[in-house]
Design brief:
By secondary structure, the chain is an alpha/beta fold. The chain is built from 10 helices and 6 strands; from the N terminus they run E-H-E-H-E-H-E-H-E-H-E-H-H-H-H-H. Helix 4 packs across helix 6 and helix 8 crosses helix 9. The N and C termini lie far apart (about 50 Å).
């Protein structure tokens, strides 16, 4: 008896990552990739037009309506009563953000440094209703103190713009001049964005921006 293969949509802003995931899923007979997307808008369009059983998505892609990432969209997607299983692949390693992703109700979180070989394990566990965490994600989440809140926040458009200019090396007063706002306003927006992402120090912010490829 021939079984119908599971259908997947793969979303990432790096074509080589899409190709790698697609090749592995189809070569191993794990899934048929029925659509791909390079950002959250394309992912939303693919979901509207192409039925699927799984979504494999990066979170560092450009988001919807000025959002800095796909996190907000994926969070809203988890609220749907009938939805595809969602497995996130990311380079982000901040413990609070990773713990926050787990709390969103995703079906798997894979650190790209763990390799695509984790996909088969993630699919197998998701099929049983579990949530797969790759080894680097498990290790990062373990480092989070019990009293430390998990965070997987969504930045506002302006907070994201401030971070982008900061990544380019602009100082607070230069960013303020760029937007025609006060230094205090820009500093507040930067602190607000860091708080949403669970980042406490400048070093953590720089590392976060580096992982997104902005630094």
């Amino acid at each position: 008896m021939t079984t119908t293969p599971k259908r997947a949509i793969v979303a990432d802003d790096h074509p080589i990552v899409i190709r790698g995931i697609k090749d592995l899923l189809e070569r191993e007979g794990l899934m048929q990739v029925v659509a791909t997307a390079r950002d959250t808008s394309e992912l939303a369009e693919a979901l509207d037009s192409t039925p699927c059983d799984y979504i494999f998505s990066d979170i560092g892609m450009r988001g919807m309506d000025g959002e800095s990432s796909s996190i907000g969209f994926l969070k809203r997607l988890t609220w749907r009563p009938a939805r595809p299983k969602i497995i996130v692949l990311t380079m982000i390693s901040q413990p609070r953000m990773l713990a926050g992703l787990v709390q969103l109700g995703l079906d798997g979180v894979i650190d790209k440094r763990d390799g695509l070989g984790c996909l088969a394990q993630a699919i197998a566990l998701a099929e049983t209703g579990g949530c797969f965490l790759s080894p680097c994600v498990v290790e990062a989440v373990r480092q989070l103190p019990a009293a430390s809140p998990a965070r997987a926040g969504v930045l506002s458009r302006r907070e994201w713009e401030v971070f982008q200019l900061y990544a380019r090396g602009l100082l607070v007063h230069e960013i303020a001049a760029h937007f025609g706002r006060s230094r205090k306003t820009i500093a507040t927006q930067r602190r607000s964005g860091m708080r949403k992402l669970g980042l406490e120090t400048e070093a953590e912010l720089v590392e976060f921006l580096r992982q997104l490829g902005l630094v």
